Amino acid sequence: MSQEIFNECETKMQSAIEHMQREFKTLRTGKVTTSVLDNVKIDYYGTLTPLDQVGSVIATDATTIVINPWEKNLLGDIETAIQAANIGVNPNNDGDQIKLFFPPMTVEQRQEVVKQMKGMGEKAKVSIRNDRRDANDKVKKLEKEKEITQDESKSAQDNIQKITDKYIAKIDSILKDKEAEILKV
């Protein structure tokens, strides 16, 4: 019974880390990636559609992204959506494609990105602590219903704390590596 609680707790904690890492992809590091446009959606025949589903999105070098829409009439909509997304650059529409030129990041911008990243890490830690609380509540409920003894409950809660510590340490390690990557000029 306790093993099921541990497994569920670990699965939820692993999802929190995966979610944090997906959020990191929207952050800009020294080299520009197409994932900075992941949250940009355009109105495609009445449906909000991700940018990469209405054209090709390619990072041609460390500071440039080129968007080639499959339908040229979408150029204006794409341009408007990028401006509304406020990703820090203005789109250049040449009538055929849209180019985004990202200037090299300043030290202040890098520090700002690190702050955002740490905020994402803190959210993941809060999520993990909530998962710990939920798992502990399940263990306490089993103890209250006399399905496990007080000693088993204490042991299970200690085990849940060890799992929590492991995942918090994992987040700290990921944050440290990512910070070094962002601050590296």
Largest pleated sheet:
4 strands, antiparallel
Helix content: 55-70%
Terminal Cα span: 51 Å
| Percentage of residues in strands | 5-15%
Strand order, sheet with most strands: 3-4-6-5
CATH superfamily of the largest domain: Ribosome-recycling factor
- Average pLDDT level: 90
Tell me the series of helices and strands, N- to C-terminal. HEEEEHEEHH
Structural class: alpha+beta
Q: Poorly predicted ranges (pLDDT <50, ≥5 residues)?
A: none
CATH class of the largest domain: Mainly Alpha
- Form type: elongated
Q: Helical element count?
A: 4
Number of domains: 2
CATH architecture assignment of the largest domain: Orthogonal Bundle
Give your account of this protein's structure.
The chain is an alpha+beta fold and 185 residues long. It folds into two domains: 2-25 and 106-183, Topoisomerase I, Chain A, domain 4 (Orthogonal Bundle), CATH 1.10.132; 34-101, Gyrase A, domain 2 (2-Layer Sandwich). 57% of the residues lie in helices and 15% in strands. It contains four helices and six strands, in the order αββββαββαα. The protein has a four-stranded antiparallel sheet with strand order 3-4-6-5, with helices on one face. A hairpin with a 2-residue loop joins strand 1 (41-44) and strand 2 (47-50). The protein starts with a helix and ends with a helix. The mean pLDDT is 90.
